[in-house]
Amino acid sequence: MTSKKTTNIYLYTRYERFWHWLQMFLILLLLVTGFEVHGAYTFMGFETAVTVHNYTGLAWLIAFAFFVFWVFTTGEWRQYLPTTRKMFSVIRYYAFGIFRGEPHPVPKSKDAKHNPLQRIVYLLLAVTLLPVQMLSGLLYWGYNSWADWGIGWLSLNVVVFVHMAAAFSILSFLIVHVYMTTTGHSVTAHVKAMITGWEDVEEGAMVEAWEQKIRK
Asked: DSSP states of 46-71 as a string?
């Protein structure tokens, strides 16, 4: 595999890193308690698992609302604008090129932290899968109040099915996401970047003047 020349830039802000690890912790806790509630195993005990699951779900909802506010007030929403430009090049890279030591077709930069494939995946997560999971969870949690809310016509079985299907989809994403973190120039490079904020990107990506000054 040929070596690639890289440049170290400050790519992820403190809030981005905080949100990333907080969401990871909350989702893992929701998965662990959720599967216990459905009888997959015994760890905390049913009642404790239900309580922890409910409060964690509410915490996740609040944290997600803050993230949406941050994205739109900082202009970071542009990072998630979908594009098909170089989409097939990225797919080909992860399918074949990465194993041949080829350079990434879309190097990271401050203005483009996500490649076209990531943009579509993250956007679908943010506007479809996560809201569906949160809404179905709220409905599940408030089942005894459905009549008062005027939605007594809903089927609990359908809500449970949707909630579980979304949970397995999120779990599948996490597995793939963890694998993708190992595809940097080293196995731990992407994880380190999400801890420190500094990412080694291939030369040719935009490096802002203030970043160069900080690293001197």
From this structure: HHHHHHHHHHHHHHHHHHHHHHHHHH
Q: State the fold for domain 6-215.
A: Fumarate Reductase Cytochrome B subunit (1.20.950)
Can you tell me the distance from the alpha carbon of 166 to that of 129, in angstroms, rounded to the nearest whole number?
6
Helix (H, G, I), strand (E, B) or coil at 159: helix
Question: For 106-117, how does the pLDDT look when each residue is reduced to its tens digit (9 = 90+)?
Answer: 888 888 889 999
Residue 202 near residue 104, CB atoms below 8 Å: yes
Token pair of 131 as six digits: 């809201």
Enclosing H/E stretch for 199: strand 198-202
Contacts 24+ apart (CB under 8 A), 166-169: 166/129, 166/132, 166/133, 166/136, 167/30, 167/31, 167/34, 167/35, 167/133, 169/129
The token pair that represents 26 in the structure block:
């909350």
